[in-house]
Amino acid sequence: MKQRVSEAYRLLHPRPVVLICAGEKPNVMACSWITPVSDEPFMVAVAIWKENYTFKLIEEKGEFTVNVPQPELLEAVWTAGTKSGKDVDKIEICNLKIRRAKNVNAYVIEDCVANLECVVKERVFAGEHVVYIAEVVDAYAEGFEKIWKRKILLHLGGRDFVTFGEPFRPKN
Ligand SMILES: Cc1cc2nc3c(=O)[nH]c(=O)nc-3n(C[C@H](O)[C@H](O)[C@H](O)COP(=O)(O)O)c2cc1C
């Protein structure tokens, strides 16, 4: 018999974790509630808790970057997801290499395997989160082969992570 679960969001995990970078003085936060929502134009939806410093930064500029980490960046991801830019400079304490994005007023994280530059088009208030629908105006990665074959850092919820390695395809 099925039982009622308390942290029901975990039923929709594991999910890929990304690092959201926003702000003129850049800040980084971990985010696993992100999904593609349109291919043409390419758009993503990102759920940001209203108490996060990142919420304030995205409200100010309407632009941010999505940076895809490999599992080796787990410690930085955990720091980015458990400390606030209100209190500490996470870019510095995580020793992350950054540079200005090409098309948006934000920074990208060079240590990550892929970077997506995003411009907010709409926002929806959803409980304690705000869902930003953003157009990806530019995206780049360290070679498609590499990104396709990489191990992905997935968040199970809480302190739990998992990674899957070997890609496979359906036969038909
Ligand atoms: C793996 C992981 C995933 C997270 N996903 C989200 C998310 O999707 N949305 C969100 O608002 N916060 C998420 N968080 C929490 C924020 O990263 C956390 O509140 C962070 O301290 C916010 O930083 P900031 O105040 O500098 O913006 C996540 C945390 C972790 C560890």
Protein described:
With 172 residues, this protein is an alpha+beta fold. The chain has a single domain (14-138), classed as Pnp Oxidase, Chain A, CATH 2.30.110. Helix content is 16%, strand content 44%. The chain has a seven-stranded antiparallel beta sheet. Strands 1-11-12 form a three-stranded antiparallel beta sheet, with no helix packed on it. A two-stranded antiparallel sheet has the order 7-8. The longest helix has 9 residues, at 53-61. The radius of gyration is 16 Å and the shape is globular. The N and C termini lie far apart (36 Å). Flavin mononucleotide is lined by residues 17, 27, 29-33, 47-49, 52-54, 78, 81-86, 155. Flavin mononucleotide (FMN) is lined by residues 17, 27, 29-33, 47-49, 52-54, 78, 81-86, 155.
Summarize this entry quickly:
It contains four helices and twelve strands.
CATH class: Mainly Beta
Main beta-sheet annotation: 7 strands, antiparallel
Q: Which distinct ligands sit in these coordinates?
A: flavin mononucleotide
State Rg: 16 Å
Number of distinct beta strands: 12
- Please indicate the count of domains: 1
Determine the number of helices (DSSP H or I, runs of at least 4 residues).
Answer: 4
Question: How large a portion of the residues is in β-strands, by DSSP E?
Answer: 35-45%
CATH topology: Pnp Oxidase, Chain A
Can you list the strand order of the major beta sheet?
3-2-6-9-10-5-4
Annotated CATH homologous superfamily: Electron Transport, Fmn-binding Protein, Chain A
Mean pLDDT: 94
Q: What is the name of the CATH architecture?
A: Roll
Percent helix = 10-25%
User: Terminal Cα separation, in Å?
Assistant: 36 Å
Write the element-wise H/E pattern from the N-terminal end onward. Answer: EEEEEHEHHEEEEHEE
